[in-house]
Amino acid sequence: MLHCDACHQKDVDGCCYECVGVSKPLLDKIVVLDPGHGGIYSGGVHYGFRESDINLSVALKLRKKLARLGAKVIMTRTRDVNLAPPGSTLGADLRARVDVAKTSGADIFVSLHVDDVPNINLEGPASYFPEGRSSGLASAIQTSLVNEICTDGNGVSPANFYVLVHNDMPAALIEMGYLSNPAEALCLMDNAYQNLLAGGILRGIINYFQK
Length: 211
Ligand SMILES: [Zn+2]
What we know:
The protein is an alpha/beta fold and 211 residues long. The chain has a single domain (4-210), classed as Zn-dependent exopeptidases (Aminopeptidase), CATH 3.40.630. It contains 8 helices and 8 strands; from the N terminus they run H-H-E-E-E-H-E-H-E-E-H-E-H-E-H-H. It has helices at residues 4-8, 12-20, 51-68, 90-102, 136-148, 162-165, 182-188, 191-210; strands at 30-35, 45-46, 49-50, 72-75, 108-115, 126-130, 156-159, 171-178. The strands form 2 sheets. Strands 4-1-5-8-6-7 form a 6-stranded mixed beta sheet, with helices on both faces. Strands 2-3 form a two-stranded antiparallel sheet. Strand 6, helix 5 and strand 7 form a beta-alpha-beta unit. Mean pLDDT is 89; it is low at 1-21. It binds zinc ion. Zinc ion binds next to loops. This is Germination-specific N-acetylmuramoyl-L-alanine amidase.
């Protein structure tokens, strides 16, 4: 994986425009972006960083990039909030995310997360698709994401995460890296690195639709 210093040398916004030209390859595509956790559900917390903040920050960057290319972007949250009313269960929060997707008429659903495990040496992104269904979206995103940040990553796997299996549309859940890895945690909090992640996911989404 590239270290943050190396990432800083790359202008993702500039590259993005060069690579996809001035056309709007995502015109009329509806994309639901789901920044995982939020509010009382912070997700993983390490080294003073919260997963929910990283997920939201990358999602907001990705929203901007998608919109520039013509996509209509629907976010499950744009602030540090939980989706279900106070006092609700985590299940209700997850259900609310799927409800946003179901009522949106969206083409795809992309949930953004970062991972948190006891082994602090694990690093790099992994992408998940709903068990028993197509891996196409997750594969397209994983391929361009690892290419963008110059790492092998941890591949594409089926999973039974609630927001994947209860969604009818093509869906992917992206673990963008490990917050439990101290070096990667610093990268994940870095603005330029977050732009790289958003750029990699963006290109994966473009590739998915252009197949
Ligand atoms: Zn998470």
